[in-house]
Amino acid sequence: MRVPLSWLREYVDLPATETGRDVQAKLVAAGLEVETVEQLGAGLTGPLVVGEVLTIEELEGFKKPIRFCTVDVGTANGTGLPQEIVCGARNFAVGDKVVVVLPGAVLPGDFAIAARKTYGKVSHGMICSSDELGMGSDGDGIIVLPPEYEPGTDAIALLELVDEVLDIAVTPDRGYCLSMRGVARETATAYGLPLRDPALLDVPGPNAEGHPVEVADPFGCDRFTARTVSGLNPEARSPIWLRRRLQKAGMRPISLAVDITNYVMLELGQPLHAYDRSRVQGALGVRRAEQGEKLTTLDGVRRTLDPEDLVITDERGVIGLAGVMGGADTEIADAVPDPETGRVSGTTEVVIEAAHFDPIAIARAARRHKLPSEASKRFERGVDPLAAPAAAQRTVDLLVLLAGGTAGAGVTEVISPSAPHTVAMPADHPAKVAGVAYDRETVVRRLQQVGCDVYGQDDLVVTVPSWRPDLRAPNDLAEEVIRLEGYENLPSTLPKPPAGRGLTDRQRLHRRIGRALAGAGYTEALNYPFISEQVLDQLGLAADDPARRVVTLVNPLSDEEPALRTTLLPGLLGALRRNDGRGSHDLALFETGLVFHPSGHPAVAERLPVDHRPTDEQLAAITEALPVQPRHAAVVLAGAREQAGWWGKGRPADWADAIEAARLIARESGTELLVRAGQYGPWHPGRCAELAVVIDGDERVVGHAGELHPRVLKTLGLPARTCAMEIDLDAVEAAGTGTVEAPRIATFPVATQDVALVVDAGVPAAEVEAVLREGAGELLESIRLFDVFTGEQLGEGRKSLAYALRFRAADRTLTVEEASAARDAAIALAAERTGAVLRGA
């Protein structure tokens, strides 16, 4: 909302010395977001005067039309003689009144004016356009003034070129500040001055002579005021003061009737619409649109209406989209002269609509049709329903004054009765909220300044003013008291938290895994939890995959990603793709975060109170309504895992690195991870490991790791041989032993025994390792696979697995015989379980 300071002073008697910056500081302290104070006419100095064009001489021989003019500027030039000026504009004629800047003046932008020779003539000044004076470009060229102004009149004052404009960012809950009336009320309160309310007008009561109105949807439209004005002069133009106020407020002057409705909207905050009465057939109506109905709006677009749209109708059908934009069929007609008779035709009789519509219906219609307007912006934030009659009366008065019209005797008002909203609040509630002592008198005084009626002593009953629909609860009223008393007066106090219980086991595990992955060379990438269901197709998930059952948001941030993620991979793979596209080809990213699954029994969460702790039953009901939210961890890798250099060859990331990341997570949680060949969704069927843990004796698959399928890589635009791992952290934690114990430092030496076993190529190395671990017994400290070999000497379909076994006893030094016995026991069990044969035997 742009608020000219000169206009604001009409409603509040601000001290003459107060500047826009001073008012800004006061309004900011009162809670309004005044972003800037624009200095109009900064650096402008005269003489800038009204001139009358006496003669025009067309200069020939130039690439563009040039005119040499003599202009009467009165005594402003010190001689009283006509001023000679060269001008290229064509939209003025002899006898017109124009704006002339004389030598010695400085226009906005530090544009100094001096006499200069141009096109073979000496130009003593310039005839000005709106753009040159900082009034904005209206596309009409030179400013042509009404004929009543005398040559030599100061144009700076006449055009109100010097002013200050406050640009206020109005938050959704302060819709009343989208009007001069609302800002003036806040200014008067901030300065402790009386307010001259522009809505306090003498308004005649409704009668049977008004234009007929039928409201079929009283919920969508609870108030409709209609007035008529006839005998309008179609040639009447908006006066300078009206045009300038609209321009300063950021609106473009159009025509007198439209300018007046816009002016009243800016003044009182009530959107209005004027219909050409000759184009309205029968009664005006308000209803919901019918399926398939169409309307051509004022912007010339043919729109298909939705059954939820509120529309204005007459006997022919829809003539306007209520609260958003009128229809072209009833538009105010521009004045058009008849070339034969010279008579001017145009709108001479109007019907004025001042209505109050349901904010939600208007907001949805404006978004549905992608048609934001000044009217919809106000209706969706809440308009004072009681201001409609005053706004209609103000419009009638201005049309009578400026267009020579006659106010119709009829007044139509259709009203759905409603009681004022009241809020019960203890008098000490604002003090409890702020932590500052406010006595009852202060609370009552501040609420009355807002416009409330307050009754009661210790327990107050507050009647909320009609222009503040945002005041619905005691906390809203407390906020009003606190902001008017001054946020800057609230003391800064540090909270006193109770003694902490420390992190939960889940939080500790989450942090421990993050540190471990970062230490292993992964970079954390935090992604939004929103996905499109299309990405699940791109990942190659089966049609019946549980990950396809998503929780869809009612009001998503983006229509392209309306669902909550069921896997971390889309976000991580998107981050990898973006970084690879920007030149970072060696990537290792990880993320730990929640995924979301439908709970299977959807419920609507209850709105909790804010003045006391919710009950256990309320908290349980909210928890029950939430989706299931397990925490997952995932990694993605591409490019080189180890860089080449003087120290040796590097190597690319492969499926084994993804599996090792899962093993790292399992170690941090004290969990034994089972790794075996698997096949799932986006992973390559021959390079995918299935990850499982044992929970309460039952084996459970908790994730997958390996190299992604080439088809997935192509669809998502990922680098070749990209690898990934995702695992359910909550399940891993449940299978773990709890807190990971630090290793003990052994005081006895280790005995190392190597063993190479030949097995069928289809036997997983993890299975052989598990059997060796079991067979070696308690003396085995660790086991490591250090070589895999295949070749002709082993035979087709066979492979050699070489393991390093480390044996150690906690109470003695092992003998060679003990270590060898443990080794032989492990080999024997491996031979029995897997068919392994000792290589070379």
Automatic annotation (TrEMBL):
Reactions this protein catalyses: tRNA(Phe) + L-phenylalanine + ATP = L-phenylalanyl-tRNA(Phe) + AMP + diphosphate + H(+)
EC number(s) recorded for this UniProt protein: 6.1.1.20
Presence of keyword RNA-binding: yes
Cross-referenced PANTHER family: PHENYLALANINE--TRNA LIGASE BETA SUBUNIT, PHENYLALANYL-TRNA SYNTHETASE BETA CHAIN AND LEUCINE-RICH REPEAT-CONTAINING PROTEIN 47
Species this chain originates from: Streptomyces koyangensis
Localization, UniProt: Cytoplasm
Gene assigned in the entry: pheT
Protein name: Phenylalanine--tRNA ligase beta subunit
SMART domains: B3_4 (SM00873), B5 (SM00874), FDX-ACB (SM00896)
Residue ranges occupied by any FDX-ACB domain in the UniProt entry: 746-839
B5 domain segment(s): 418-492
PROSITE patterns, A to Z: B5, FDX_ACB, TRBD
A GO molecular function held by the record: phenylalanine-tRNA ligase activity
Names of required cofactors: Mg(2+)
UniProt keyword list: Aminoacyl-tRNA synthetase, ATP-binding, Cytoplasm, Ligase, Magnesium, Metal-binding, Nucleotide-binding, Protein biosynthesis, RNA-binding, tRNA-binding
Family in the record: Belongs to the phenylalanyl-tRNA synthetase beta subunit family. Type 1 subfamily.
Segments forming domain TRNA-binding: 42-156
Database matches in InterPro entries: aa-tRNA-synth_II/BPL/LPL, B3/B4_tRNA-bd, DNA-bd_dom_put_sf, Fdx_antiC-bd, Fdx_antiC-bd_sf, NA-bd_OB-fold, Phe-tRNA-ligase_IIc_bsu, Phe-tRNA-ligase_IIc_bsu_bact
Subunit field text: Tetramer of two alpha and two beta subunits.
Top-level taxon: Bacteria
NCBIfam families named among the record's database cross-references: pheT_bact
Cofactor note: Binds 2 magnesium ions per tetramer.
Database matches in Pfam families: B3_4, B5, FDX-ACB, tRNA_bind, tRNA_synthFbeta
Binding site residues for Mg(2+): D470, D476, E479, E480
